Amino acid sequence: MKNRLRMICILYIEDDRISALIMQKFFEKADGSGTAAAHHTYVGAPLITRNAFRVDLAPDPFTALEKLQSFKYDLVLMDINLGDDELDGVELLHSMRKMEDYQHTPVFAVTSYAMPEDRSRFLELGFDRYFSKPVEQHAIVRAVCEELEL
Amino acid sequence: MKSNDTSLIDALDDPVAIVDATGGIQATNQAFDDHANQLPLTQTPGPGTNYLDICRCYLPKSNACRLCIQGLSDLFGGRRSVYQHFHCIQNGRKRLRASRIDKTDRFLIHLREGHTYKNSGRDSTLAFENSETAIATGSTATQRFDLPEWFTDTIPVATFQLHVFSNGNSIFKRFSSYADVIPGLYARDLIGRDMGRFLERVGPEDRHRVARTFREACEQRKAWEVRFRIDSHLDHLRYLQLRASPLEAVGGGLFWNGIMLDISESRDLQLQLADVAQLARVGNWELNPIGNRVNHNEEISRIVFPRNLQRMETLDQLLHSFVAEDRAILAENIQKLLIHPGSFDLELRVRTDHNEIAIVHIHARTECVNDQTMRLRGTLQDVTALTRQRQQIADLQYALDASALVSATDRNGYITYANDNYIRVTGFTRDELIGQNPRLMNSGFHTPEFFQNLWETITRGQVWRGEIKNRNKDGQIYWTDTVIVPFIDESNIPYQYMVIRYDITDRKNAEEKLKEARDMADEMNRLKSNFLANMSHEIRTPLNGIMGLSQIMRMEENVSKLHDYANLQLQSGRRLLETLTSILELSRLESHQTQLALQRVDLTALVREVISYLEPIARSKSLLLSFQSTQPDGYVHADERLLVQVFNNIIGNALKFTDSGGVDVSVEPASDRQGQPFLCVKVRDTGVGMSAEFLDRLFDPFLQESSGQKRRFEGSGLGLAIARRYTELLGGRILVDSKKDKGSVFRIELPAHD
């Protein structure tokens, strides 16, 4: 698996426009080696030698559900406060887990809720990993690689 | 040494005299002498005196006297064989019976106690017969020492004859058949046996004494009298009284004639009476008004003189044993009673010889003959323990009544008793309470199950304890710590409930206040944590932008893109700054450090200016932002900077929460309750609106509807909190009217200024 190169598809559910843009850029410049500096090491090397990431964005829960149904993502990054009265990240996670395709798909919480008790709270609620904003590029990329065993 | 017949009559209890045919006294027994000594006679009766003279002397000069002397003369003259007479003498009534002894010229005069013929009965008649025959046979039996068997066997008295020889040996000659009836004596077996055999029958504790008294009687040749217990193996103990008189026997030694009486019953009664007296600590006494002589039993000595069991003999002694004040009361009552026959009952204090105070119940009544008070008789009972108990109970009741609210109910729960405390707290009168159910005070606070549980507990006979909230007559609430104690009858069913309550209203109020304070502190704490969490969120989101963009820019080779990233970074930085400023402003407001630069401000112009700043936002959301003023130049006295922030925030919010339609702003005159002129800035939007619940907390810091993880609109949530505080600082207020999904109206009112 490790040697099979492929396109990794990630859905990032985030209502903050700037945060969403930043995440897209983080993965655009990363590869499967799990390091943020990978780009420099492999510059000029054949494309085939690199894992590629595609980060799709969903600014609200309904767009997210639509996208999840139309395509099977490898991993989901999820903001918790989605600016919606009906659904927040936690509830969206529970809806996802009821979908056949996403029963075991890794879902990371990426949130500004960063009080000391929040990490354990979100992990208990069913997220596979927890990241508080501000997010470091190498940390999130490495975590994604580890989770997908790249 | 007396003659044979004297020895016989000595064995009799009743006064007996033997006279000759002229009435001359030949012999008397001890009882007769005792009797005669009490009579007001000029000479001592005895051999040489005449019985007829005695009659004349002590019998009242009356028909009875004449009849008595006549009857005796007839007897002595042989005109009648027996003479019986009933006469009244000074110390009681006596029945006289006189008869000829056998065929001699001697006569037996026998006196016997007896108030009426009826009472004298058969027994006394038999006793008469007995004594006559005894004398009759005795007189002729100086050689023959036995009574005829037919006689001794028919009378219900155990008689015996005992011969004691000069060498000390003894032999029982005879027992009358009645002696067989005495259980444990086995009289028939004793005939022909000696004194030693008889002593074996005597109870071991009495044996030595009986033997000793008998020896003494033999030595002194005096009448022998002794009381003893028969060593019966039967359950019931028999006590006998033995009396015998000695005769000089022919050929030496003594010949004893005696009787034995079964005194078990009277002794039992005596013992029982003594037991009862001691148990009840009740003694009896009598007072003879002549000479104020007092007679009393031993129990009174035990009560009054527990140390040395002294006897009192005069009224003065009796009175002296009482404490001074009570002595006077008793003396007065006794004097009254002696004048007006009747009775009294008093409880008085006695000072005992232990120098302790005993409380005695003293009862007295008069005993009269022909309306003449002969004596006082009465009882004296030690009621100290009883009185102390009564006092203790009264003390306890007093202590309870003084501290608690006490009431009692019957078995159905209806009030039968209420003390003053209970009446004071409930506000009802005693008449209003008695017969009512305590439901009268029900506050409606407790559930029916609460009272059902209470009722079930106490009807089971168990004590119930709990706190009850009640309502008094005026409708005021009071709390009581309540204990209900059931009183149970013989069949284990409660017949009464005692209810003891303590007023704990003050404590309950304090508890409630404490709880409120605690709840408020909890709420403040919760708000503070919320505030911190929200602050953290509001700082981290723009910081994520700044730091994330920095990481991207570091890797970006395309320089033209860097410009866009820097712009985004700046936007994030501004948002962060705005949050920080708001937090600082709020904290300054909270600590009252906001500096005011008050001046005359044209409100209409200021609002118009704020709108012009916000115009671009409205345009970008395609919203209509309109302004109109009925007050072309309305002035207020205010800080311009703060006012700009207030309107910026409220009109900005209106735009932020409105997706379609528009926002109307107007300035119009208003007034407060006191009629002071105000200016009102009204901001009406067609936005999302707010729920009533949310409106209540609208101005709390960091609150947006759908708080927590569902916040839809970005922003610190501090804006409205600050706007309201600023407005209030400027002497105004903000009013909000809103309906969910229908839009909101904010009214900012400020005092008008000329």
List the helices and strands and how they pair.
The complex is a heterodimer of chains A (150) and B (754).
Chain A (H helix, E strand, L loop, with lengths): L6 E7 L3 H12 L9 H4 L10 E7 L2 H10 L4 E4 L10 H10 L8 E5 L6 H7 L4 E4 L4 H12 L2
Parallel strand pairs in A: 1-2, 1-3, 3-4, 4-5
Chain B lengths: L3 H7 L5 E4 L5 E4 L1 H8 L13 H8 L4 H14 L5 E8 L2 E9 L6 E7 L3 H24 L8 H4 L5 E7 L5 E6 L11 H4 L4 H7 L2 H17 L3 E7 L7 E11 L5 E9 L1 H17 L1 E7 L4 E4 L1 H7 L10 H6 L3 H16 L3 E9 L5 E13 L2 E11 L1 H20 L1 E6 L4 E4 L1 H7 L3 H4 L14 H12 L4 E8 L5 E12 L5 E10 L1 H51 L3 H32 L7 E5 H18 L3 E6 L5 E5 H17 L5 E10 L5 E9 L6 H5 L22 H11 L3 E7 L3 E11 L1
Outline of this structure?
The complex is a heterodimer of chains A (150) and B (754). Chain A is an alpha/beta fold.
How would you characterize this protein structure?
The complex is a heterodimer of chains A (150) and B (754). With 150 residues, chain A is of the alpha/beta class. Helix content of chain A is 37%, strand content 18%. Chain A has helices at residues 17-28, 38-41, 61-70, 89-98, 118-124, 137-148; strands spanning 7-13, 52-58, 75-78, 107-111, 129-132. A 5-stranded parallel beta sheet of chain A has the order 2-1-3-4-5, sandwiched between helices. The longest helix of chain A is centred in the first third of the chain and has 12 residues, at 17-28. Chain A is globular, with a radius of gyration of 15 Å. Chain A starts with 6 loop residues before the first strand and ends with a helix. In chain A, 39% of the residues are buried. The model of chain A is unreliable at 34-48 (pLDDT under 50). Chain B is α+β, with helices and mostly antiparallel strands and 754 residues long. Helix content of chain B is 42%, strand content 28%. Chain B is built from 23 helices and 27 strands. In chain B, the strands form 5 sheets. In chain B, strands 21, 22, 23, 24, 25, 26 and 27 form a 7-stranded mixed beta sheet that branches. A 5-stranded antiparallel beta sheet of chain B has the order 2-1-5-4-3, with helices on both faces.
